[in-house]
């Protein structure tokens, strides 16, 4: 069995509180695009969100944060606690993730506690696979209110997927794009339209 978790509990302040997962990119919501990809990669998809009614009709298991107001790290902790197995974690604002790349992230996690992409911009901890070895160190930090995701890497055996390897999965430079602001939405639409991107695969 394998599990993926979409973290959808953020407040999206820079988007005026809009639901990022329901933003439409290239004719489909980010959530639908992600669900389509994840179902081709893992056996089980869960959504970590504190307003489960948003996803009541989507055929997925929705779980609420075990520790409220603990941010993304709390979402990762919740996913690991519910799944009881390695979890591929993705943020709900990444429309261009692909099945081949996510499959590779899962494969790499077999060599470490966590597998995480690293680009010139730094680590992407919300597109990473966390094994159960992460649960206790993450839980300890969540309970202590130490919520910066990257800080937990100091407690873990981390295997990075470097820019050279990522480039083989990312010919258009969109793979790890995330949507944070209204300008990001417009930019994503323009970039994907210019290169003919219509769906994730």
What would your notes on this structure say?
The protein has 201 residues and is of the alpha/beta class. The chain has one domain: Spore Coat Polysaccharide Biosynthesis Protein SpsA, Chain A (Alpha-Beta Complex). It is built from 6 helices and 10 strands. The strands form 2 sheets. Strands 1, 4, 5, 6, 7, 8, 9 and 10 form an 8-stranded mixed β-sheet that branches. The chain has a two-stranded antiparallel ribbon with strand order 2-3. Helix 2 (71-83) packs across helix 4 (135-143). It is globular, with a radius of gyration of 16 Å.
Topology (SSEs and partners):
Elements: E1 3-7, E2 24-25, E3 28-29, H1 30-39, E4 44-48, E5 61-63, H2 71-83, E6 87-91, H3 99-108, E7 114-119, E8 122-123, E9 127-130, H4 135-143, E10 158-161, H5 163-167, H6 182-195
Helix pairs in contact: 2-4
Determine and state the CATH class.
Alpha Beta
Main beta sheet strand tally, sense and closure: 8 strands, mixed
Backbone CA Rg: 16 Å
Rounded to the nearest angstrom, the distance between the terminal CA atoms is 21 Å
Tally of individual helices: 6
What is the helix fraction of residues, given as a range?
Answer: 25-40%
- What would you give as the CATH superfamily? Spore Coat Polysaccharide Biosynthesis Protein SpsA, Chain A
CATH topology: Spore Coat Polysaccharide Biosynthesis Protein SpsA, Chain A
Number of domains: 1
Mean pLDDT over all positions: 89
